[in-house]
Amino acid sequence: MKTHLKILTIPVLFCCTAVLAQDVSFIRVETSEPHTPLYQNEEGFETLQVKGMIPTSTSDRKWFRISAEYSTGAEWINRLTLEYYVFFPGETNVFKGVATYVDIPRGRGHLSDMYLHFNSYARHYKRGVIQYAVVALIDGKQVAAATNQRLPESWWKSLPIHPNRLLDRSVTPFAVFNIEKSESQDRSPQ
Fold it and tell me: Domain count of the chain?
């Protein structure tokens, strides 16, 4: 009987590992330079009210935004961590941001994004191609990655991390945008 149980256990573990590798895939990763939004009510007065809020901007300050749209294949994923890496031309350190999501249902169109404050962006980005990578991890294991720089592979691992981190959308004025495409975040200390 023990031999029979061992034979059944090995294929089950192998199947779970194979399915895990297909649970997350990136549809698109994009960068942009949004202006700081200003929210106004119907009369045009600046307000923080949510009802009737219209995003506009009168500021010339640009934030750096990196967004990842991804799909999931498992019925539910308990925890998914996305690590963002951004490398500006002329810099020696890579900017990193981490977001951990919980209770992610199967489907397409999940959205995650990170921001660099407009002052930091103005200071560190002069011109040229910005290199980036987004890495998906489940239980600490990489299950997907998207980057605009193919060589060397995993280039972001060889660079030191900048002390100034990328910001999660919840601590920016962009927190209310596309709220239903963003998953619930785990706020416990990492």
Answer: 1
Say if residues 66 and 34 touch (Cβ distance below 8 Å).
Answer: no
The SS3 assignment for 28 reads strand
Give the whole-angstrom CA distance, residue 126 versus residue 112.
25
pLDDT more than 90, % of the chain: 57
More confident residue, 183 or 64: 64
Q: Whole domain around residue 138: which residue ranges?
A: 24-33+62-185
**Token pair 């975040």 in the structure block, residue:** 185
Q: Which of 186, 32, 14, 187 is nearest to 101 (CA)?
A: 186
Q: How many helices (H) and strands (E) does the chain have?
A: 2, 9
In a domain, 48, yes or no: no
Q: Find all residues with CB under 8 Å of 28, minimum gap 6, and list them.
A: 68, 69
